Structure formats: C-alpha cells, structure tokens
What does this fold into?
Amino acid sequence: MNIIFYHPFFAAQDWLVGMTQRLPQAHIRAWQPGDNDRADYALVWRPPYEMLANRGDLKGIFALGAGVDAILEQERQHPGTLPTGVPLVRLEDSGMAQQMQEYALACVLRYFRRFDEYHVLQQQQRWLPLVPHQQSDFTIGILGAGVLGKSVAQKLVEFGFKVRCWSRSAKQINGVQSFAGNAQQAAFLHDTRLLINLLPNTPETQGILNQQLFAQLIPGAYLLNLARGAHLVENDLLQALEQGQIAAATLDVFGQEPLPQAHPFWCHPRVSITPHISAITLPEQAMNQIAANILALEAGGPPTGLVDMQRGY
It folds into this structure.
C-alpha cells in the first residue's frame, strides 16, 4: 500500500511517522514535484494540480480538513485536479467538534450575559447594570446541521437555550427545532436572536449572510460566522451594524485571509475577530480517523466522511 502526503503548512515528517505507526504495512512518502510513482491513497490540503491529475488508480483522496471547498474550487478552476471516480473523503470531527463547541459557547455566553457591553462600559468608567437577556427570548439559530452544527446545537441545549437548526435536508436532533430547505428559511430566521453559521461552502451558500437575511432576524441580533468567509457579504454586515439590525458580530473566517490591515473590521467597535482558529485540525485524531478509513476501504467497506461531489460536502 502506497500513500502520498502533501500539506503546505503541516510538517510532513510528523505525518509520515504518525501514519506509519498506524499503518505499518504501508509505504508513506511526502509528495514532491515530479513524483509520478504509484500511489493508492493521497492525504492532501490544496494539492498542486500535477499531484493528483492522471492518478485514476487512486483508491481514495483524503482532505486534511472538515471543509473540502478549497479542493473542489481547484477542480472547478483546473478540471482534472481530482481524478474522475476517485472517492474524496473529508475529516469528520477528529477533535474539531469539541473545539467548535467551546468557541461557540464562549461567544454565546458573552453576548447572552452582555459581557461585550460591560467591557465598553468599563472603558468608559461607567457603573451601569444592564437588563439581562432571558433564555425565553434568546433563540439561537444554527445554519448547518452537519457534524459540527449538530455538536454545537447539542451543547447549547445542555445550557438551556432554545436552539433551532436550518439545513438543506431535514435533520433530527434531540431538543432542537429543525427547519429545512428554502421554503422554511424565513420561519427559521424569524425570532432568532443569535445566528451561528456552520454551513458548508458551496456555490449555493456563498453570500448567504447578506442584507436580506439580516433583515429577517430580530432587530439587534448577534452573528457568529464560523464557517467560511465566502458566506458573508462584508459590506452588508457593516451596513446592518450601522443600522442596528445586527448588534454585534464575531468573525473567525474572512474572504481574504489574513485580513488586510486596512479592513474596517479591525477597528469596528462591535466586531470581534479571531484568525480562523475556531476548530483546527488535530493531527493525532485526524490520523486515527484517516487510518481507520483506509482500513475500511481496503476491506471493501465505505469510509466515513465520503464527499458528495454534486453537493460539495
């Protein structure tokens, strides 16, 4: 069994050693330009075109992240980047679900307990108790009900919040109100006080966080974008903040990363920024999952995290 590895940021040696420990029967190498030797599996993140093109004999391609929008965009721009008929597999959870729970819960409690506003009052040296939010009128809506969206929803339910999810197709999550499809989107947005975006990035979801959507939320709603920068129309958010339709936003992802120094988000008093760290790939957990999926494929079984190429996730 031959496995090739490519990631522009990860230390290849750590992955070669880790995967060899898990699959001692395999020969694992870091791919280099000009390497056309046989490979059964590829572990990649933003692979160069020549790495995978014409490798129709691959048994599987593993994307080293939960999202596969980047590699699918490469395929759209350079057809043939992904060999036809080769399964594409993404990471499911592998330690990211708990990270996303932690991040989302921290932001929700910050807004729910009005800590962001108290921080401003502290800077102004003002002692002013604010009327607290009540859980009864603090409905949290989550766009996306995949592994991460479901995990966040379940954690927020544990804290007593009213939670609803919207996804392309109906999902059943204990304690969570489910909405699905375009026909139910308006009902989902109505009465939502805090909106969390965890949608996959597909051509259909790009720009979904826009003025039309913001206008359907409760005035003074909060926004958390934890999925992709392409989901957000940035000027629409700035306008919604100026109008008070959005009270505050926490953004972990951006259309251009790193965020340009001149971008207005940096100094906006009601925008909080983190550098795409809400849920990062944890190598040990990721390698465990990939090794288990390779063994499943070798045994003729299906892997977890198989990507539907038409849907884009």
